[in-house]
Design brief:
Blueprint: H1 5-22, H2 26-32, H3 37-44, H4 53-67, H5 90-95
Helix pairs in contact: 1-4, 2-3
Length: 99
């Protein structure tokens, strides 16, 4: 699935807003997802090597925001059940780890 430039810009902004809602640093997110800060920063800018990585971060942020009793900012492009997308490795996303 390729995103248009507008979808990419919107998704990057949605990531930014959701990270802010968690109050977490990229270092904390990286630690939780078993990766490094540079990788998280690349994912938040949609520059990762794996198309599953943004879904892992999206799900992580959504979970953390809901644990705080807040409502996450909806994602406009990363929508639906990722299990239904044939081109995504759902098992990788389910593992909740970025490698």
């Amino acid at each position: 699935m390729s995103l248009t430039v507008e979808q990419q810009e919107n998704t990057i902004e949605e990531f930014k807003e959701n990270v802010a809602l968690t109050g977490l640093t990229t270092e904390q997110i990286a630690l939780d997802l078993h990766t490094d800060t540079a990788t998280i920063e690349q994912i938040l800018q949609l520059s990762s090597r794996s198309i599953e990585d943004p879904w892992i971060v999206k799900n992580y942020l959504t979970e953390k925001i809901m644990e705080l009793g807040k409502e996450p900012i909806p994602f406009s492009a990363l929508v639906g059940d990722y299990h239904d997308y044939w081109f995504l490795n759902a098992k990788k996303i389910d593992r909740k780890k970025i490698r």
